[in-house]
Amino acid sequence: MSTPTASSRPTASTVVLPTMLGVLLVALIAFGAYGYQSLAGGSVRSAAEYRERVAETRAAGERALSDLEPIPATSGGSLDETSSSCVDDFGFDDTGVIRDEPTYEWTLEFPSADAYHAAVEKLRATWTDRDLSVKRVPAPGPGESGAGLRGISTTDENGIELYLTPDWYSGEPVLRVTGGCIRHEYSYEDLGRAE
Q1: DSSP label at residue 112
Q2: Cα separation of 179 and 42, whole Å?
Q3: pTM (2 decimals)?
Q4: Residue 170, Cβ neighbours under 10 Å: how many?
């Protein structure tokens, strides 16, 4: 039976170093996940501040609707707060804190594609006059809902995002506004809150 030589025996550096690197890697991944989750939605706002943001979001949408007059909204205007990208996946938020993304959407009716595109250009001019940066939203391709209807988007002075574009599913023109992902305090009364 042969005895191991000094060069074939594991040394402290060959055992400890990989173990330390593994622990460090796990710690960095956990810290990164914590940092991402804790930053998504920003600092925790009060329930009153959140309700104010909801009101600002709705007002931004109503302003854009008035800029489109006389185009009537056929439906919509109700608050939707759910978003798959605005959630606390890892449970980092304290008790009494929730994340929501206040969003409003109105379905619009235009007599023709030309009338819709004229409204897009009218809204583009209005937003540009307000010194807002307007981005083009490409039209859905052939065979897709809303094919041929290009859209536009902007972010207003309060950081609220606005879109005039075909709906992803129905293809109908919609005006969508979102106040962004927000972490805020809530009470049990807020869970069934009205606008």
Answers
A1: S
A2: 13
A3: 0.73
A4: 11
